[in-house]
Design brief:
The complex is a heterodimer of chains A (about 325) and B (about 290). Chain A is mostly helical and about 325 residues long. Chain A has a domain of about 190 residues: MetI-like fold (Orthogonal Bundle), CATH 1.10.3720.10. Chain B is globular. The two termini of chain B are about 40 Å apart. The chains are: A mainly alpha (about 325), B mainly alpha (about 290). At the A-B interface, helix 2, helix 4, helix 5, helix 6 and helix 7 of A face helix 1, helix 4, helix 5, helix 6 and helix 7 of B.
Amino acid sequence: MTTTAPDTGRSPTRERPDRPRRRPLTLRRRESRAGLALVAPTLLVTIAVIGIPIIWTVVLAFQRVRLATLRKTGLFGEFTMDNIDRVLHTPGFADTLWVTLLYSVGGTVGSIALGLVAALVVRRPFRGRTLVRASMLLPYVAPVVAVTFVWQVMLDPQLGIVNHWGQRLLGWDAPVPFLTQESTALATVIVFEAWRYFPFAFLFLLARLQAVPGELEEAARVDGATPTQRFRHILLPQLLPVIALLGVLRFIMTFNKFDDVYLLTGGAAGTEVVSVRVYEFLTARTDIGAAAAQAVVLAVVLIVFVLIYLRFFGRRVS
Amino acid sequence: MDRDMVETVSLRWLRRLVIAAFLVVTVFPFYYMLVLSVRPIERLLLDPGSLVVGFGELTVATYAEVLKATDDGGQGFLTFIRNSGLVAVAATVLTLLVAIPGAYAVARLRFFGRRQVDFLFLAVYLFPSIVIAIPLFVVFSLAGLRGSLFGLVLVYISQTLPVSVYMLKNYFETIPVSLEESAAIDGAGRLGIIRRVSLPLAAPSIMAVALYDFMIAWNEFLFALLFLVDKPDRWTVSLGLSLLSDGVEVPKTVLMAGSVVLTLPIVILFFASERLLTEGLTSGAEKG
């Protein structure tokens, strides 16, 4: 950081001749002005495209708005609790919330566990390591529409490869419609989530693993610690803060997720998560008020969960 | 044999096994995509379990069909590619124009509200996009921006901006201040310092952020679905593929060719810049 050095000889020459008495700006004040000027575009865009919409969603949640009547309803029409009431008492609300929670926890735990294993096995150099590492990131960088489509075809009861080999090799009696029957759909979606997002955890954990000083493990080895003991007592404590951070990040992201579930099952077969429900309200029923109310409930529930999490793990995360 | 030996030896084998398993699990779906895209649909229906393409059955007719314009009996993916490319490039360029000065300011300059701004970006990044989608859907419907690619670019900027500022900020912070100070002593102004010192040093990381933004915009689905669904000539590749796969008219092999078309640019970009990207994404991770 530049310190607040006393003003150097440059600014007086810049001063306007008609106001000779005015004190030149200090470096600190000039820095502050430059900072505000440079950050202004970012701030404006963020407020315009994100800040205002968020506030507006909250306003809409307390109004009776439908797409058809939108032009008549002013921005500040009558306020009502109807939407919230309707959202909370529509059949399936509790189920949706429960499914979202299962999906988020399952996806989070699954992706972090897979990511941890992946980071541990490629930690030390071996031939082809760069290629292996890059391949492991494929599920994360590939377009969601493409990978969900491939999964759908792979799991298809008629022409999917999984059912074909399942029946041949594993002796399944009949093809399993993984994504369309209640008993397997949610689990399949969670497995997909873990598959698609483990690279995210993998990257963070690998970066942290490589920052662990080699002497630590060396010392433990000299003291006779076996590989599993070294993991348990040396590596794991080093990784815990990152795991705790990943836990909260992945939970939030999965909780908000729309694309994956919508593209895999469309929210059918007991996989309707909150964002898919919001989307249904918004497009199929064009009930903007209810959609906004549902979204606000989503955000509030999410904030509550995150606060609970931080209450227990906050020390580690920060 | 003591416990240490047993563990070391078995873990060595376990490690190789696990690496192989991970490779299969991550690469297989992409291989499957490729294989299906070059087989005729009749062959797939006859033998869905086959994983090698016979010499006689290799076909590129699927690609021809998926790329051809709808007037010529194809699926019009060339238009989708153009749309996706336009939107992604525009969003990337605009994001960088806004994000670079912003990130520099947050990283380097002390100004009123700097810490709050820093926090704001993280909060925005983690906010559900469906919450933002509702009012944007309303506004765009009213303003007639639904169905316009320009509107979509605007939304994509909001999706890429917070991450970009966050990543760039982390990088700017690693540039030694002394470099900038010596430039200042040599008489460079603030903008001169940014242009001559900070930007050249940050070039690799700006590149990484640009690629990352491009990928986000190219892969995006929800907003494209909300805003473009009524206008088939404006569809992006993602949207086109997902809407066509809902129906039963288009054979799965043709759609697989579409998936390859959608995935290939991203995979090529990714492998060309893998090192740049992974380092850019986790820079600052240790602080976490």
